[in-house]
Amino acid sequence: MATPHAWRAARVTPLGELNAPPRMTAVALRLAVQVVLVWSLWRGLYAHTGTTAGLSRDQAVTYAVLAVLASRLRELDQYAGRDTVLQHMHFGTIVYWYLRPLPPQRYYALRAAGEQLYGLAWALTGYLICLAAGIVEPPPSAAVAGVFVLSMLLGQWVLYYVMLVLDQLCFWTIRNTAAMLILLFAQNLLSGVYAPLWFFPDWFVTMSAFLPFQATLSVPLSLYVGRIPLSDAAFQLSVQAAWVVVLALFTRLLWRRAARRVISQGG
User: Are 104 and 164 in contact (CB under 8 A)?
Assistant: First the structure.
């Protein structure tokens, strides 16, 4: 169980944001511009059609805007605090993660929890504003809303482990900025951040079904807009839960192997 001192790790990245008002203003402006552009784009795409790929205009717009808001859950500037795994590996300071009383895996988890809670405040505020402005549609029923919240929680859990795996790769590749950018792009593409997966070819959708990425965002948002019916919700939730278990075991193994690669002189 984490001590009160250990929970201070959860404030590392959020405090970096809160202590820099210009950065928060920039985030708010960028988020507003993204929402307006996405809303305009999808409304324009549906200007001369009623339903495409099984989605109506309102469903597509709601999905796209919610995807933008959901991206704020983990989109924080960790580089400003020089506390990313990639930076620690580059500067040889990753060893300090193993010299603290708090184990590195717990520190990483607490910091990620703080980032997601801070990001949730941004996403929830944006959602309420968009809902009041009529930009996004409300969930069709209370049951859909409840399933969406549960699915979103599981999706963020899966996303945490996916991002953890990407960071853990730094223990073997050390200087892999290009690889990290490619993997992040793949994660956003396959999770449906850029566009709903139903707009892609069948082979692409089939391939992504065997990967954990769509469980992070596509599934929760599909449940929200009604693209996945409630009758299929139990199966989708079980798939998400299975990915949580699989990735948890895999990352636990990687933490053990990563510790063997850390030496006392540095990363």
Answer: no
